Amino acid sequence: MPTTNSSTAVNRLIAALPGPERQRFMAGCEPITLTFGEMLAEPGTPLAHVYFPTESFLSLTTMMNKGSRLGVMLVGDEGMMGFSLLLGVDLPLLHASVLGPGQALRMETAPFCRELKRSAAWQHLLKRYLYVMLGQLAQAAACNRFHLLEARLARWLLLAQDRAHSDCFHVTHELLAQILGVRRVGITKAASMLQRRKLIRYHRGDIRILDRGGLEASACSCLRLDQSLYAQFLESTR
Fold first, then answer.
1. Pair 182, 127 in one domain
2. How far is CA 183 from the centre of its chain?
3. How many domains does the chain have?
4. Sign of the torsion formed by the C-alpha atoms of 9, 13, 18 and 22
5. Which of 100, 108, 135, 179 could bond 57 through an S-S bridge, CB–CB 3.0 to 4.6 Å?
């Protein structure tokens, strides 16, 4: 995906709305800057806002034993945070934190729910988005069980690159280990293998994708399935 600049940054869910409804919805949104590590949602705490990343991206995680967390999915300008509201529930099941800092749009939950009830286009669009998320969750569960760590890491780095709209982003070995549910030494070994093959450059948490084609060849098949599912969803909204 090309790099996005602040003058043209959009959220693709909002952009898929018909013109008049998009303008009405945008009028109720507040542009904000999200910072790295900022917590946007926690299980058991009612949602105050929904978030639509434009340049930023979020990590959704679930709590495991002894306080560790497992990554569930990334959300960038293709999606939103607060999808439980589509089911009439304001208590999120997942932690949502900022992994890629940058711009986003947010709206308080009450006006969002009113807009959702008012707009058949929003209901149509977001039901399909929820369908895609369920498909990606199922695929992630299978991926974590059956695929090798190096292939899973390559897939995750490509998903992060797409949402960062940049070849460079920051994520530590420790955080990657938490997200992928493995020991830190496993991440170090897998990242070193990718670096020796000159697919990535990694230094003190700063990652640069050097060879996307090579990284795609190293990633597990889940990457293509994720991309195919979302492409079908986009086609259905046109």
1. no
2. 23
3. 2
4. negative
5. 100
Count CB atoms within 10 A of the CB of residue 101: 18
CATH of the domain at 182: 1.10.10.10
Which tokens go with 37? 């590590």
Residue 128 counted as domain residue: yes
| Residue 235 resides in a domain | no
Element (H, E) at 223: helix 222-236
C-alpha 156/C-alpha 144 separation (Å) is: 11
pLDDT digits (tens, 9 = 90+) for 155-201: 999 999 999 999 999 999 999 998 998 999 999 999 999 999 999 99
- C-alpha span between 137 and 189 (Å, rounded): 26
With 0.70 as the threshold, say if the pTM is over it. yes
Look at residue 93 and tell me whether its pLDDT is greater than 70: yes
Write down which residue in 93, 112, 144 finishes a domain: 144
Rounded Cα distance, 235 and 230, in Å: 9
Domain of 140, in residue numbers: 12-144
